[in-house]
Amino acid sequence: MNHANMKVKPKVILHKILITNRATSNSKKMFDSWMNKSSKILSILSLITFSAIVFLIQGDHVIQHDSIILHATYKEPLVMLQAKKSTLSTLGQSYKPLHSMQEDKDEIDFSNQSVLIAPLNVTKEQRIAWFKGKLQDFKILKSNKLSKKFHARIQGFLKNESCESQFFMTWISPSSSFGSREFLAIESIFKVQPQACLTILSRTLDSNHGYKILKPFIDKGFKVQALTPNLSFLFKGTLAESWFHELRKGKKDPGEIPLFQNLSNLIRLCVLYKYGGVYLDTDFILMKPLNGLRNCIGAQSMDFGSNHWTRLNNAVLIFDMNHPLLLRFINEFALTFDGNKWGHNGPYLVSRVVERLGKKPSLKFTILPPLAFYPANWNKIVGFFRKPKTRGEEKWVEAKLIQLSGETYGIHLWNKQSSGLVIEEGSVLARIVSNHCVFCKF
């Protein structure tokens, strides 16, 4: 045995251990260094990813909020940033609604309108206290970015489109409740007057969902848009301005009848006073062009013995801009507002104002007979929906159609009474609608 070799082996072993430890230490340092670099790289990548997500979300908000749609003959909407919308508002093409990301929340708020109806059987003071507590939920009373652009948007729409005549409607309910009955009313307008322009004053339809509802008309080249109204602007310069100011402070009694309904009565008067044109309820079927009518209101009922009207209605209004009768209607609303009486701020309002003018009013306007807009009163409208079951009923349908083809411009369907009815095949309405529809999916 070589004792010399035996003495060397511990050194060799120790040397190997030292080399191994050094290698291990170096590997560990390299691993730690790699981990530190990886961590830094991952941190940078995470930061970049997060920034990209934020940018995309914010960019989507900007595009969605400040976009316009050019519709004319295009099949799909062209969305672009509205950095210089004045240069994009030419060529006679209208805007897509300028939505905000708040619209979905607003839609939910509007869909819960039942909670915004004042409690019954309470005192005036209790009702005002309830209203003050709910003020923040009445979104329609507040301004937003869309309402502030109302006047510019409506002027751009009416200026850029070649309008044979301008129609207005209001819609203060959720866009989800805009159904076939309302869709049919729009169809009848464009069937009878295809070159007309229709503006729907609505906070809920001025949205992505609202645009989808109206898109079938836009795709066919019809001129229609929904705009969020600026109530302060519409009421300015009338007694309704101070009334609305007090209402927004919670100092007015809203009444038991839904405030939305009464605001619709006022909005229609003010939009006609500001811009002039035709106002139609969303349950009105147009049968004949209104081009020949000017400064008209229709009688709902008449005493045929004296040939004098007994009640007027505000479901159809045709007036020039700044007509003095409209101003009287608006001021009457502000001075006599009562939210506890159905019709007090609507049909009864226009009736009492005109009644005070006497038989020879100094203001130039025309009262049309019931057959013009209200050929069936609210308590008889059911007959227009029913299918004839006997020979006698068939003759009645034929006779009614002949009568309506004469002096009738359209039919008010009295939605409050008829909303649950179906247009039955062969009925008066089925026959009329089939000749005054665009898509004809009723």
From TrEMBL:
Top-level division of the source organism's lineage: Eukaryota
Q: Pfam families, from UniProt?
A: Gb3_synth, Gly_transf_sug
Q: Where is the Alpha 1,4-glycosyltransferase domain?
A: 319-440
Q: Which Gene3D superfamilies match?
A: 3.90.550.20
> Matching InterPro entries, A to Z?
A1-4-GlycosylTfrase_dom, GlycoTrfase_DXD_sugar-bd_CS, Nucleotide-diphossugar_trans, Put_A1-4-GlycosylTfrase_plant
Q: Which PANTHER family match?
A: ALPHA 1,4-GLYCOSYLTRANSFERASE FAMILY PROTEIN (PTHR46781)
Name the record gives this protein: Uncharacterized protein At4g19900-like
